[in-house]
Amino acid sequence: MTGVNVAVTCAGVRVNPGDIVTADEDGVAVVPIARAPDVLKKSQELDDTEHRMLPFIEKFRSIKEAVKQFGRI
């Protein structure tokens, strides 16, 4: 069966037309288009937190200190 703009299932994950698919050496992520704004906001928040952690990691030479300060890696 072939088609254009039809839903498909890849490795058990449904991918609908318009969904965002991204991949790197760590894996693949599918973001339903309706959730894209929320996922983008959360991604930006996590990126900001990670950038704020860098000085702590460099200063204390310890990820434990950064986790204590920010609550996550």
Q: Could you write a compact summary of the structure shown?
A:
The chain has 73 residues and is α+β, with helices and mostly antiparallel strands. 45% of the residues lie in helices and 22% in strands.
Q: What key phrases describe this protein's structure?
A:
two-stranded antiparallel sheet; 45% helix; 22% strand; alpha+beta; 73 residues
Structure description:
The protein is α+β, with helices and mostly antiparallel strands and 73 residues long. The protein has one domain (8-70). It has helices spanning 36-60, 63-70; strands spanning 8-10, 13-15, 20-24, 27-31. The chain has a two-stranded antiparallel ribbon with strand order 1-2. Strands 3-4 form a two-stranded antiparallel sheet. Strand 1 and strand 2 (13-15) form a beta hairpin. Helix 1 packs across helix 2. The longest helix has 25 residues, at 36-60. It is elongated. The mean pLDDT is 87.
